[in-house]
Amino acid sequence: MNFSIIKEEILGELQLFQGIIEKRNTMPILANILINAVGNELELTGTDLEVGLSTHFPARIEDEGSITISGKKLFEIVKSLPEKENLNFREDGDLLMRISSGESEFKVLCLPKDDYPKIPEAKFERKIQLPLNNLKEMIDCVYYTITQEQRYYLNGALMVIKDKNLELITTDGHRLAYTSLLIEKLNMEDEIRIIISKKALNELRKFEDETIEFDFDENNLFFRVNKRTLISRIIEGKFPNYEAVIPRNNENIMSVSKNKIMDSLRRVSLLSTERSKGVRLNIEKDRMTLFSSNPEIGEAKDKISINYKGEGLEIGFNFQYLLDFLSTVKSENVKIELKDKSSAVLLKPEEDDIKYIYVLMPMEL
Q: DSSP strand E in 7-164: where?
């Protein structure tokens, strides 16, 4: 194998693999990426057996070939070399890759291509196209509630694709985030319900373009943006009945400035206990008092103005759960719908391009 390429033409691609390749060294080959030089293109592939990425782009190929090399070291070497320089890659035999640019030269030990796991092939026959920027915004709205636990179906987001509509839903048992988007060009005969892993969602946020293609087979999900294809194993299991969790009759309704309540929560949370992260809200007609206490430190209190229709109410929350939602909202004001001190609360932005609701259980303080 022998090829050359300008630094900037390969560096961005190598950077994308840093979030995918295996770092725990359970299988040394998974720390590598597969390089395949064929014709006038370079193909790169990386996987941790759960999430994979393949990409291809032009390069000056002198001798075709395939080999696997440490994804982290290759990225660090290329990144260290001067800008806009021509990089030469040559396999010297005995699984040794020589990388040179100007007076700089590196020799990196590699592993044979035959040991690399086979990546599932995507066909994209369903012709499903989604608006990428909207999808990334939806991921941001639900990402923070994904948990890591033994119930695998909670370790990702439920994606529902139906005629002219896309939904993403996540829950960790204490809270639920739901977002949906109307897509006029999305024509579907059958509804699709699939759980996407947290890692795959995070990698999708790094893609840039107007649209993203989607397809799947029995075991894998495929997402394609131009020359890049992300592959993710489907998470097995039945996602909870999220529709039954969303409150429908919370009659006490509050409207409040997002920035005001965020600033107040951050101040009051300074004296909450590290374990519970509890903050108590005393809600009245035109104001809300926020209170926290820690027996070992002291207590804090703050007041902000609100618009509120309903009965006076005192209720407790994990302040971090509130901040997680508020930090993703673009609207200047948020609406909070409450029932009583022990029932689920519904939060949503007053204005937004996508439908976004957040269900949160209160806590006893």
A: 32-38, 41-47, 51-58, 60-63, 65-70, 86-91, 96-101, 104-109, 128-131, 156-162
pLDDT by residue (tens digit) across 36-60?
999 999 999 999 999 999 999 999 9
User: pLDDT by residue (tens digit) across 221-233?
Assistant: 999 999 999 999 9
β-strand pairing of 156-162 with 128-131: unpaired
Q: How many Å apart are CA 233 and CA 45, to the nearest integer?
A: 16
Cα–Cα distance, 160 to 313 (Å, whole number): 36
Domains of the chain: 2-115 (3.10.150.10), 128-243 (3.10.150.10), 246-360 (3.10.150.10)
Distance between CA atoms of residues 2 and 23, nearest Å: 28
SS3 of 248, please? coil
Q: Using CA atoms, how far apart are residues 111 and 94, in angstroms rounded to an integer?
A: 9
